[in-house]
Amino acid sequence: MKARVHVMLKNGVLDPQGEAVRHALGNLGFDGVEGVRQGKVIELDLADGTSEATITDMCEKLLANTVIESYRVEVL
Amino acid sequence: MKARVHVMLKNGVLDPQGEAVRHALGNLGFDGVEGVRQGKVIELDLADGTSEATITDMCEKLLANTVIESYRVEVL
Question: May I ask which residue range the UniProt record assigns to the signal sequence (chains A, B) (predicted)?
């Protein structure tokens, strides 16, 4: 089975990487880019029958820093 | 309007970051993790009416390295 985990910085946490992308898009002539946030997506190839609780556990223990990041699990 | 761009390494391109995550999950006692690929997700806050073609252009010019990465645009 496959699962996808999206990890984003929480709202209010400064995202310098996203800001850099926003500036770069402006410099390239793309107008109207009001904000950019950059996060991670992790695609997991798991043994069949792995529960969503286990995936959540992986997020809490390793994949996301829950102090500053939020995550979303999507089982494919 | 908002758009989300997913950028992943193409199949066959070595993903050391994903491999590191796979090992770390194994070390934490999570069995059955067969593969991990890590990519980026970029959330764009754009002026209303920005066309999908413009977003694709952003991907080609800045957001993805199309030699080794594939991207997917999702307008929200």
Answer: none
CA distance B16 to A30: 32
Low-confidence ranges of chain A (pLDDT < 70): none
Domains of chain B and CATH, by start: 2-75 (3.30.1280.10)
pLDDT tier, B25 (very low <50, low <70, confident <90, very high otherwise): very high
Longest dimension (CA), chain B: 48
Residue B65 pLDDT: 96
Cα distances (angstroms) measured from residue A33 to each of A7, A57, B19, B21, B34: 22, 36, 34, 33, 38
